[in-house]
Design a protein that fits this description.
The protein is mainly beta and 539 residues long. The chain is 11% helix and 39% strand. The longest helix has 17 residues, at 65-81.
């Protein structure tokens, strides 16, 4: 069973692919033929399906089309191997226009014989109902419908003949593709600060945690610091206090202070304890992506000169002096990644570029075109794989040394979430699912639904292995390391910047409802609404 389940998720589940009859895209498609015709998986499929059918002891098994016919053949062979043979029948859409002009092909048993209906999937039941009615017209007696996967919580067709028993290996909820009823605990909100941001569809500045403070920028032009009790420690305007510049940039804490960029293109450094401005450096027209400390006394700044030009700047943390500037192929909306003396940046043209951080080599170390804008932050792991999530839904693992593609996998129609590396896994969210991947190969370990709108921002792992995901439907979802939904908080707006882990099992998240939430998912009552502790408003 485990082998088939893993194969369904890794080889038959295609997020962001498939077309409806009206030429509109599906959000995802499950194409079981990818495993039905695979030599390493089909024997296991036939054994499991036979065990579902055997208690009914049919004389024959009936299927239709390119999904049912391979299963019919496999079950005929499996039944012969077990010395309880069943014949196989394949049903055409309509009678063949030549030859024997038959619709039902194969050794048709005598009238009144019991038959089992087999298919890969059942959703509304319309296909199974049609097979049942057609087999009955041939004098046969359908006694069970057996499938690999049943779509639970799907509207049933009036012709499905639900009086015929159903048996299946998995439901969509079993696989994690569809939502089961979400009767889970709501994590307590230890405190909440209101009025941090105004509603905005652009990802917010993600909170950072250091030195006992939680610091984030605001699209109202403020840099705000609160302590772990939710009390405000300081607030600094980004620019003219009468008309400060909004920011969507995630700040970075360095030995020389807290540094953040803003929509006016200026990078500012403030004192971590007081918020007092230390220096400011104009870099471009806009700095909207997160900054990264290169570990050599500089931060790398992804900067945009409107309308389309981008660059990466190295800015000295001590005084704000620009050490070097490297052009990108498009505007910068993704936080770079740095390992040793190599920096990797992505841009809206879909180009990923590697630079040396010393400034001695002006030419890029390598460039790779991914073919779609990259706006999610880049992540590099301890195997020197750089993970890039793009706007066509592909997650690509590049070799840090030369930009070679180690693997690629499509996980949705558009990826805007920052991958999280934990142990041997990579966690990333797409249009409606969060995925746990084996990071060396990209193989899918598990899938879980994350609501009707795309997940965005950073995914966090808490210290007990819990995975926290912020979602476009306004929810913050906490999953076990095995992919089981443990708790869910529903905020009043989209969670576009993701989740920041704050030690233990606590987390902080900014929502488009304007609030900053401090959560403790360890505590909660099953099925309860979220309980809010201390609540305060930002001035």
């Amino acid at each position: 069973m485990r082998k088939v389940r893993e194969a369904l998720l890794d080889r038959a589940f295609f997020p962001g692919e498939g077309w409806r009859a009206n030429n509109r895209r599906f959000g995802w498609i499950l194409d079981c033929r990818e495993i039905e015709m695979a030599a390493d998986v089909m024997p296991a499929v036939s054994r499991l399906l036979y065990e579902l059918i055997a208690p009914f002891a049919p004389q024959a098994v009936v299927g239709t089309g390119l999904s049912g016919a391979p299963l019919v053949g496999a079950l005929v062979l499996e039944s012969a191997r077990r010395a309880h043979p069943m014949d196989g029948l394949v049903l055409r859409d309509q009678r063949k226009a030549y030859g024997r002009r038959r619709q039902l092909e194969g050794p048709i048993p005598p009238a009144g014989s019991d038959v089992a209906i087999v298919d890969d999937l059942e959703s509304s039941g319309a296909t199974a109902g049609w097979i049942i009615e057609t087999a009955t017209q041939y004098g046969l007696r359908p006694i069970v419908v057996v499938t690999l996967v049943r779509f639970d919580n799907h509207a049933r067709d009036s012709s499905a003949h639900d009086e015929i028993p159903r048996r299946y290996l998995f439901t969509l909820s079993d696989l994690g593709i569809a939502c089961a009823p979400e009767n889970v605990s709501a994590p307590p909100v230890t405190w909440r600060v209101n009025g941090v941001n105004i509603p905005d569809d652009v990802p917010f500045s993600r909170p950072v945690h250091a030195r006992g403070l939680i610091v984030l920028g605001s699209n109202q032009g403020q840099l705000l610091a609160v302590d772990l009790s939710g009390a405000e420690r300081w607030r600094t305007p980004l620019g003219d206090p009468r008309d400060p510049s909004p920011t969507h940039c995630t700040p970075v804490i360095t030995a020389d202070g807290l540094i953040i960029g803003s929509d006016d293109g200026v990078v500012r450094c403030v004192d971590c304890d007081t918020g007092r401005l230390r220096w400011m450096t104009p870099c471009a027209d806009r700095v909207g992506a997160g900054l990264v400390d290169d570990g050599r006394g500089h931060v790398l700044v992804p900067a945009t000169r409107l309308p389309h030009e981008g660059a990466v700047l190295s800015v000295r943390t001590r005084d704000g002096r620009i050490a070097w500037r490297r052009p990108l192929a498009g505007y910068a909306h993704s936080r770079p990644a740095v390992v040793a003396s190599t920096a990797v940046a992505a841009d809206n043209s879909g180009t990923v570029t590697a630079f040396g951080t010393t400034g001695e080599q002006q030419e890029p170390l390598w460039r790779v075109m991914l073919g779609a804008p990259v706006k999610a932050d880049l992540v590099v792991d301890d195997t020197d794989s750089c993970y890039c999530a793009d706007f066509h839904g592909w997650l690509t693992a590049l070799a840090l040394a030369d930009g070679g593609i180690r693997w690629r996998r499509r996980l949705g129609g558009c990826l805007y979430a920052v991958p999280a590396v934990a142990d041997d896994r990579l966690y990333v969210a797409g249009d409606g699912h969060v995925f746990a991947l084996e990071r060396r190969s990209g193989r899918v370990d598990w899938v879980a639904p994350v609501g009707s709108r795309a997940a965005r921002g950073a995914i966090a792992q808490l210290t007990d292995g819990t995975i926290a995901v912020g979602c476009g439907d306004g929810s913050v979802r906490f999953f076990s390391a095995a992919g089981r939904l443990q708790s869910l908080l529903q905020t009043g707006g989209a969670v576009t910047s993701g989740v920041t882990a704050i030690g233990g099992r606590r987390a902080v998240v900014a929502s488009a409802d304007g609030c900053l939430y401090f959560l403790d998912p360890l505590i909660g009552q099953r099925g309860s609404a979220a309980r809010v502790g201390k609540e305060q408003s930002a001035p």
